[in-house]
Specification:
Layout: E1 13-14, E2 20-21, E3 25-29, E4 35-37, E5 40-47, E6 51-58, E7 63-65, E8 67-69, E9 72-78, E10 83-93, E11 98-100, E12 104-109
Parallel strand pairs: 4-12
Antiparallel strand pairs: 1-2, 3-5, 5-9, 6-7, 6-10, 8-9, 10-11, 10-12
Length: 112
């Protein structure tokens, strides 16, 4: 069974004023079952302010670093082969605790 969200995350916490925050880490894009087009894609991850580092793992390969910008963490993935893929994200917080998302499945199609 494929799971859409995260193992330890996306449990929103409502703050004063109704804003929702991410408690740990969530894989935003690609979404479950999404088809991405072309050989390049930027993966987006949400993580708490306590995140010291965020990494992704594509198709059970090595962990790769993400960059932080505009309130999110990003990974620019290139040379994407057409077909089904899986991705997972993990973060390490300031205390050294590691939180990880569930696997996210998606499909890559060649550019037309």
């Amino acid at each position: 069974m494929r799971q859409r969200d995260t193992a330890h995350a996306k449990a929103g916490k409502t703050q004063a004023g109704g804003a929702t925050t991410i408690e740990t880490i969530a894989l935003d894009y690609p979404q479950e079952g999404e088809t991405i087009i072309g050989s390049q894609y930027t993966i987006r991850i949400s993580a708490t302010d306590s995140a010291r580092s965020v990494e992704i793992c594509v198709d059970q390969g090595p962990w790769q670093s993400c960059r932080q910008s505009a309130g999110f963490w990003w990974h620019d993935w290139s040379q994407i082969e057409p077909g089904d893929h899986q991705v997972r994200a993990r973060m390490t917080d300031a205390e050294g605790n590691v939180k990880m998302t569930m696997l996210r499945w998606f499909h890559a199609a060649p550019a037309a």
